[in-house]
């Protein structure tokens, strides 16, 4: 029986910052989606005081839908971009 003892532990050696940078280079639309989500949540909290006669629950639902919509849109654009790179922009041999 042979056992594979040459397991690479390089993925365990990286810290959170370098892991985030590596993931951002692999999928650039994920950090864009996270930043958009944070921006929409921050804007919703800012607008919380001046919501007028709108109920709190309706305001929160609108902010949640907007934030989720931004994230889904960013993920869709990222998928389209990766499909473009893989299938159409790839140099032909």
UniProtKB/TrEMBL annotation:
GO CC, one annotated term: mitochondrial membrane
Localization terms from the record: Mitochondrion membrane
UniProt-listed Pfam families: HIG_1_N
Keywords annotated in UniProt: Membrane, Transmembrane, Transmembrane helix
Source organism superkingdom: Eukaryota
GO BP annotations listed: mitochondrial respirasome assembly; negative regulation of apoptotic process
Transmembrane segments: 27-45, 65-84
Listed InterPro entries: Hypoxia_induced_domain (IPR007667), RCF1 (IPR050355)
Domain spans labelled HIG1: 1-93
UniProt KW Membrane keyword: yes
Protein name stated in the entry: HIG1 domain family member 1A
Annotated source species: Fukomys damarensis (Damaraland mole rat)
Lineage of source species: Eukaryota, Metazoa, Chordata, Craniata, Vertebrata
């Amino acid at each position: 029986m042979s056992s594979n003892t040459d397991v690479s532990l390089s993925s365990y050696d990286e810290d959170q910052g370098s892991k985030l940078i590596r993931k951002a280079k692999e999928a650039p639309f994920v950090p864009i989606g996270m930043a958009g989500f944070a921006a929409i949540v921050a804007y919703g909290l800012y607008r919380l005081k001046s919501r007028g006669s709108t109920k709190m629950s309706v305001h929160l639902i609108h902010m949640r839908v907007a934030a989720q919509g931004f994230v889904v849109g960013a993920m869709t654009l990222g998928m389209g971009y990766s499909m473009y790179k893989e299938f159409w922009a790839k140099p032909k041999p």
